[in-house]
Amino acid sequence: MPNITLIGAGSASFSLSLIRDVIVTEGLAGSRMTLVDINEERLNVAATLANRYRDEAKADLTFSATTDRKKGLEGADFVICAVKIGGYGPLEKEREIAEAHGYYRGIGDRVSCYYGGVGAYHQLRFLMDLARDMEAICPDAYLIQTANPVFEATNIVTRCTKLKAVGVCHGHWGYRAIARTLGLDLEDVGVLMAGFNHHVWMMRFMYKGEDAYPLIDKWIEEESEEFWRDGEYAEEMAPGVIDTYRLYGCFPVGDAVRCATPWWHHTNFEAKKKWFGKTGGFDSQIGWTNYLDGKPKAFEKMQRLANDPDVVLTEELPLKAGDEQHIKIIDAIANDKQKLLELNIPNNGCIKGIPDDVLVEIPVVVSGGGFQGVMVGDFPARVMHNVMIPRWVRMENILEAFLTGDRRPLVLSLMDDGRTRSYEQAKGLIDLLLDQPWNEEAAKHYRW
Question: Is 198 among the catalytic positions?
C-alpha cells in the first residue's frame, strides 16, 4: 500500500482532514503516512491528533513524524506539498510597502500571498529544492502540489524535472454557490470548468441536461438587484462577477471571482465595496484581516483538541470524505480506479491556443496510468485575449526571472498593472521589496 508524505504537516487541521480521507477510503487501508514540518511544536500537535484519530477510527494506518525532509521522503510513493515559506508576516509587510507606492492591497493576483512574496522566490526555491530531493530519494513518487502559487510552482517542476507532478486546488467547487443561488438541485447540475489555477471559467453549465446559462441571465434580470440590496451575499454572485460575465461572455468560478475580474474592480476600498459588497470581499482589508485572524485561532483549537484526551476527535471531524482531491488522486493511481477530477496538468492540446507545457486547470481522468486531460477546445475569445494570455505571460515572466536571476521580467510584469504610472514607479517598488531583510537571499538572486 502507498507511502504518503505530507510536507507542511504543521497545518494540523489540513493534515487531519487528509488523514480522515485516507481512513474512509477503503482501498488505502494499510497505508503509511509521514508527517514533515520544520516547526516541531506544530508537528507534534499534528502527530498527536493523527494517532488519536486513527485509534478512534480503528483504522489500519501507520504514522511517523520528522523535521528532516530528506528522511521523510524515504520510500515515498506520493508527496503532498502544503508549505508556505515564512508565514504571512513578511507578505503583509510587502503589501504595506506596495500600498504606499500606489498599489492598493499589494501586487499580484489580488491576494499577494498567492505568489508567496515578490517574484514568488521563496516558494519557488523551496519547491525546486524539494523536487531535487525527490529526484534523488524517491524519483518515482508523484508530487501533489497544493501550496500557492500552484500555477507557477507546479509549472516549474513539470518543465525543469522529470517528476510526475500535479497541482491541486478547490476553487472549482464555487459553481455550487451559483447553483444554490439559482435554487437548483446540485445532483442535476453538470459543469465543465477550465482555465488556469485561480482563473477558472464555467465553460458549460447544465441543469437536467439543458443549458443553464439562460437561468443565470434570468436571475440577473429579475432577482440580482434584490439579492445585492443589503450588501451581504455569496461572493460567487457579486456585482463584480456579473460585470465580468457581461464583459467576457463566460462566468468566473472560485478564486477567479477575485483574480480574473478586471483590475478596476480592485483599485480601492470603495471600488471593492461597489463590486463585492459592504466588506469589499474576501481580499479587502476587512475580509483578509478576518481570514488572517482565523489562522492562529484554528491552530489554538487544534492544540486544545490535542491536549484534551477526553475530546472525541471523530465527533469533531466525522468520518466522512471531504471535498479535497489529494487522497482521491492517490486512490485512483494506487488502486487503478478511474476518477474524473479537476486538476492542474500540462495542457498538451486540451485548450486550443495554449502551449503544451503550460499548466491548465481542467477535468482530468486519473488512473494507474497517471493523468489524462479532457479536451476542452476553444476558449471564448474575450476571455482568452484579455485574461488567459495576460495571466500566462505573467507566469512566464515570474519563471524567467526565477530561472535567470534577472529582475527585469518582474518589473515588466508590474508595468502591465493598471495602477502603474511609470517605469520608475515599478522599478522602485521591486527594488524596495527586495531590499527588505527577509528578502536578502532573493535580492542576491534577482540581479540587474
Answer: no
**Does 336 qualify as catalytic in the annotation?**
no
Question: pLDDT tens digits, residue range 256-301?
Answer: 998 999 989 998 999 999 999 999 999 899 999 999 999 999 999 9
pLDDT tens-digit map of 174-184: 999 999 999 99
- Cα–Cα distance measured from residue 343 to residue 333, given in angstroms and rounded to the nearest whole number: 14
CATH 3.40.50.720 fits 3-102+111-167+312-319, yes or no: yes
| 128-181 residue pLDDT tens | 999 999 999 999 999 999 999 999 999 999 999 999 999 999 999 999 999 999
Which one of the listed residues 37, 77, 109, 255 is annotated catalytic?
255
C-alpha span between 434 and 445 (Å, rounded): 10
Sequence spans of domains, the chain: 3-102+111-167+312-319
Cell numbers placing 110: 489580488
